[in-house]
Structure formats: structure tokens, C-alpha cells
Model the fold of this input.
Amino acid sequence: MSRSANHLDRRGLAWGVVGVAVVIALTFIGSDRLVWFDAALVGYLFGVVFAVFGVAYRYAVWLRRPPTAMLNRRGWDAFRQRKARNVVALPSLVATHLLTQGFIRKRSRARWLAHQLVFWGCILAGLVTIPLTLGLLHFESVGQRADHYQVYISRVGTMKFDAESIVGWFMFHALDVAAVLVLAGVFIFLRRRLRDPGAMAVERSGDFLALAGLFAVSVSGLFLTVSSMWLEGRFYSALNTIHALTVILGLMYLPFGKLFHIFQRPGNLGVAYYKRANDQGAPAVCRRCGEPFASAQQIADLKEVLPQVGFDYSIEGGGNYQDTCPRCRRAHVTLAQSARVGGFG
Amino acid sequence: MRSGQFGIDDNPVFVIDQSRCIGCEACVQACAECGTHRGQSLIHLERVDRATTTQTAPMVCMHCEDPTCAQVCPADAIKQTEEGIVQSALKPRCIGCSNCVLACPFGVPKYVADFDQMMKCDMCTDRTSEGLTPMCASVCPSEALWYGTIEEFRDTRRGSLFRDFLFGRQQVRTKVYTVIDDALAGPIDALAGATTTWLDDPFGLDMEAPS
Done:
């Protein structure tokens, strides 16, 4: 086995392969044994397969980091502790923590608006393109009427619509709507990144790459509509290739770049359950001031994780420095430093 | 061309000498002006031992060489720059668990509930990257917070620059320096100062007289 193969995480590989198998099975079954699979979209399918493999692999590796593994375990423990109540609380948590993202609005309204525009634009685009790519979704004419269509999910016929109606317009322009939403968000983000000195100072290369990718996908997609509606299809083939390339590269970037936070963020729900469970448990009491300062469970979890990541905060003669509250830690450092310069003043 | 006070070869260092703090809170106000976290003051300034002394002390991020906060972050949201600056949590990644707040040996990171994320001092990256002094050090009248070159420190200040700490059995080296008189006595043991108070030896006589 080569050296690089030795460095691959076997569990990550296994989860990646499982993810790919699920996508392929879904495509085969969902498209009615490939009857409704659009061969022109095979490049996009490759992109989806790669993205699923990469995301599953990285997610599995991420979950094995000691603090992540601990939080993952504790989050699920907390969820199961009061399952009925936690299931009831789930929609509200999803709405506030994942969909409406009020925590971003408190940082900055412009930032929140930009994130919401990009978020909903991407959700809309994903809801349309992924089922189309996998052959799960297709349209058929209703009888002999060329202006009426029916939406099919796999073999099952669902809603019918008039192509000339508002619904019809939205059906055929959903991706244009998504592109406009994403572009509006990208421009707000770009304005901030180019004009805010604070944002510029902590800039990471991935910040611009993600925005550039979203911009390229949206603009090249809009050009397809421009070509078909106003240019009588001129340059369509070249534009189509460019758009496909941007989308496929974007999908391949998902597991590696900044956009991986889309898959990490739901961990926030586990944290919410963990915190709620901890609030009801015993508090940790500071070994110096005797005041409660955190949950005993979280401190115990940290004391278990720290040696796994190479730290030993145990105290000779018994006890652990981690049982000190943050305020007393600062006092400890200050008193120790001042003692080494002959006291205060 | 130098855009700030320090050029690329100057290699300035941040120094914190808590014993010189006079509690004026200028640093607290200045910190909130930092471009990377405008409106949020991330420096700590508090009375150390209210029962025995009126002394106050500031605490900034010490920027550990091997940061505990980053190692216990389940979201891998805390990154270190090539210059050794431990940055505030990446906003898209931080899931607000407070592991870093509770694990930092210096008690530095803050969990900001409104934003559901951790925030901490990043040594005014927006300023230091342009050769400027961090906000807090630029306004500190007693030079408890100080920013400059090591040569400048030696020329103008007394004491030795030091950056090794001991927390229980864990030794921690930081990018930020502190000041001590006895550099040969080994790392600053955070728990060593806990057994005595300022009033036990107000003039430092016991320290000077070997028992």
C-alpha cells in the first residue's frame, strides 16, 4: 500500500463509499432504471457523487476529533434523555438556529440579509437541480397540449401547470430566481469584504474563493437564460459548458472549502440540547472562589478530552486546574506574575 | 515604505505587565474600537483580590504556541496565523459550545450569547498587520499593556521578558510576553501566587530574604 493510502481514514472512506452507493441507488431507482435520467447531465452527476463522497469523508474524519466526538455523543445523549420534549422543540430550534439565522442579524443586518439571500438561493437551486440531475424529477406534456405540463417525481405524477401562468414561469425560471438571490447576497458580502478594514484584516483566501464560485455559477447560469430568451440560442453550447464546469468545480469544492460549514452548522442543534441538559444538571464549583461557573458535566467532559489532545492540567497533589473558573484563572496568572516582580505597583 | 510605526524587520512584541495596571479602563474602551470586533470589548479588566487589595489587572489573549482553545474546539473554528496569532473563532464554524471559554488556562475567550459565538482578542490584527500598535496598548498610560521591539523594551523598561507558564502539570509558552524579575527561576507557576496575598508581603521583603 502506498504511503498516501496509509494516511487515508478508513472509516471516512467507508462512509464516503456508502454515500456514493446511496446516490447511485437513488439515481437508478428514482429515475425508473435510468429511463428518466438525462444523459446530458452526467457531468453534474459526477460532481454530486464527488461532493457526497468528499463531504461524507470529511464529516467522518471531523467527527473523530476528540472534542467533536465528545460533543456528538453528549448531544445525542441529551436528545435521548427527554426525547418527546426534544422532538417537539426541534422545529423551533431548526427555524431559529438554521433557517432564520437571527444570531447573524444581531452581528449586522447587512450581513444577515446577505447570508439569507445566498442561503435561500442555494436551497432553491439545490431543490431544483439535484432531483433533476439524479433523474428524480421530470416534466411531461399533459395530453396533446404543448402549453400544459405535469411534474413527475420518479414515476408519480404530481401537480399540473400552465406554462404561461405565474406558476409555470416560476417553474422554468426557478434557477434564475435562485441566481438573482445569490448574486444579491454575494454583492453585499463583497462590498463588506472590500471596504471593511476589520474584515479585510482577517481575510482568508477561502472567503473570496467561495464568493467567486457562487458568482461564477450564478452569472453563467443567467447567461443561459439570456442566450435562449434574447439571443436566439447563440453561444448556448459554449455557455452551457462553462456553466457546467463552474457547477461541477463548485460541487467538488464543497467538502474542502468554506462552504463545508453548511454541514457543520447543524452541530449547533446538538450544542443547544447539550446546554439545556447541562443547565438542569449539577454546576461545577470553582476550586478557588467556590462559586458555580459552568456545568459539572461540561467540565468533566473537558477533563476527559484534554489529555486526548495532549494537555495535562492535573495538579500535583490532587485536583485539576480546569476546576478553576475563568475569572480566578485570570487572578491566578496576575498574582503569580506580580509575585515574580515583587508585588503590585 | 512603512504604513505604521513598525516596519517589516522590527518584529515588535506585545507585553503585559499586570502589576503596573492602574485600572483606568482606557484599554476596555479602546478594545471596543478594534476593527475586527467593533462594539465588543474583549479585554478583561478586573480587581484581582478585592478583599485585600485595590489592585486591578488586565488580561488579553496570550496567543499560546499550542493553543488549548483551538485543540478543544469541536468545530475546528479557532485558527492560528503564521505569525502565531490565535484568531477569534471563525464565524461560520463556531457552534457556540463554550469549550474554549472553559478550557483556556488564562480565562480569555468570551461567549457572546447574542451572536451565539466565541469572541476573543486577536491582537488587533487590522492594526498590527499594518505596523500599528494594538488599541489597548496604544492607550495604556502605565504601560501595563505595551507593544514594541525587544530592544526598545530593554532600553526603556526594567525586568525580563518572559513567556513560559505552568498550570498544574501543563507548561504553556505564549507569543505575548510578561515581565518578571527572576527569569532563571523557571516558568511562572499560576498556582504559586495563590497561596499568598499582597498584604502578606506588601514590600516584597520575604522574597528578597532567603529563609
